[in-house]
Amino acid sequence: MTGEFVAFVALAMVAIGGGILMLNVTKVVHMVVSLVFTFVSIAGLYVLLSAEFVAAVQILIYSGAITIIMLFGIMLTRHQDEDEPSAGIGKKLIVFLGIAAFALVMYLGIYDLQLGEEQADLHVKNTEQIGISLYSHFVIPFELTSVLLLVALIGAIILARKDEKGEDEK
Asked: What is its EC number (predicted)?
């Protein structure tokens, strides 16, 4: 076993554990902390794949900015802290079977996947390769994504304003 394999298994277990923990804890702040563990371990997996730029962006954007925005959203909004009844064994079994089926389908889809014989040297100038590819081959999807995010931001503002008007009328 190589060190890279051990690092992969450790990071994968932390990512899976963080996801499972996020789904099973009851306090929202604990969910965000377990999500941070998942984000950081995924960044470690990117480093193992020689994608240092993507790993740095993962840490800065997801582990940093998105997590802080989620915490601010949690702290600044009013929410009811009601205890929900625990799911029955039947519901847990159905969820487990769904997850197992998804894992099997993904495994079968990836097992014999052939991506072509062309090998790119990812260790050399990977940030430059991403920039050239993004701004030459994928400029239209990049711009459409920015417009989509702008529309989502405007929609969120409109929805938030409607909620404020609804509270003022009560």
From this structure: 7.1.1.-
